[in-house]
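Page 47, continued from p. 46.
Same chain as before, 189 aa.
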Amino acid sequence: MEFTLTYEGPLKSKGNIKDKHALRKEFHSQLLELWKYPPLKSCGPPDGHFLDDNPPEAAISIIQNVGPFRFAPLVTNKLYLIAEIDITMLRPEPIGGLVTFGGDIDNRLKTLLDSLRMPSNINEIPSGESPTDNENPFFCLLEDDNLITKIGVSTHRLLKPCNSSTHVKLLIKIRTKVSQLIFKNMGLG
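Result:
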């Protein structure tokens, strides 16, 4: 399966829990939309059980509870899925500067990758944060960023006036692949 996530806004090189969760919310709304179309549409209620808290015996649920949130990671060990990611990053800086005024690329990518995965524990969710009505379940791309098997990054100059050196525009092309074929993951890789 292939799809593209987008983001435009600040991307800090040392993003904190709030920064990462704000990005996670941006991606949730796009992934929520993705789940409305095949092949994912048939994996959730009423046809499938991927989003059930208590699925029937032979069914698989991807729901994972962390604090008050019910996370639904698409790329998960339960489905034997992995991800390949190609990122195009537009930034308001000259081309070629890996260590930049907005922060070095590798630390900015770490912030991004942390926001694409579900939190591994409650300490990765901002204190007092709880899901809104449309965040139940809370869709995210990855159960764990170790499920990324390939990543490519290209940077270009953002040709738009910006007031912040941390401002970026991202195109994130996702390609899911099956690491082990099972009946439940057919069509997802």
